[in-house]
Amino acid sequence: MALTHYKQDTSEASPWWSKHYRVVSGPQSETLTDLDRKRGRSYLKIGFADDTIFLPVNEVPWFLNTIREMLLLTQLKTGWDGEDAKPVSIDSLEVATKLLDNVVTKNTPSPYIFPLSEGGIQFEWHTEEIDLEIEVSGNSEVVVLFRGPDNNAIAWEARLEDAVGRLKEYVQQLS
Asked: CA-to-CA distance for 37 and 31, rounded, in angstroms?
């Protein structure tokens, strides 16, 4: 697995994530879309033995470390739990990164990260008043358990694109 930052040449002094990143070499099929370039998005290109993916990079201070931790979970051996658990799938890694990119802010604390036995990823945040657990699978399914300040627990599941708005509200309460 190769982890590489691709960035545009610039002489401006600013944090690396605020620069416009792009693929600077490789086949044309690996370039970012025009829309992403216009939005000034930053990406990590990650090469696996049989696949290459692009993950969005966020300016949240802990975001890159979280991606690194999730990458390590893709290297788990089958049976890592002493039974028949799978390593975290590349699809789950992509979905989990997109989820975080869409719901966290600079003030969001870093999550605890756990592998799931079927190849997914679980994020957890726990404060005195709030517990938030999010399970992410490679098929874009998200399972959420939220306990708020009123101590009522809410559990639900949805597709990633349908879950983002509601998750933003929960994550905002953590900040």
From this structure: 10
Sheet of 141-147, strand order: 112-115, 121-126, 131-136, 141-147, 153-159
Tokens at 54, concatenated? 């692009």
At residue 80, the 3 state secondary structure works out as coil
126 token code pair: 């726990």
The tokens 């975080």 sit on which residue?
100
| pTM, to two decimals | 0.75
Residue with the bigger pLDDT between 175 and 76: it is 76
134 in Cβ contact with 121 (< 8 Å): no
Cβ–Cβ under 8 Å, residues 156 and 165: no
Q: What is the pLDDT of residues 38-89, one digit of tens each?
A: 456 667 677 776 777 777 777 788 888 898 899 899 999 999 999 999 999 9
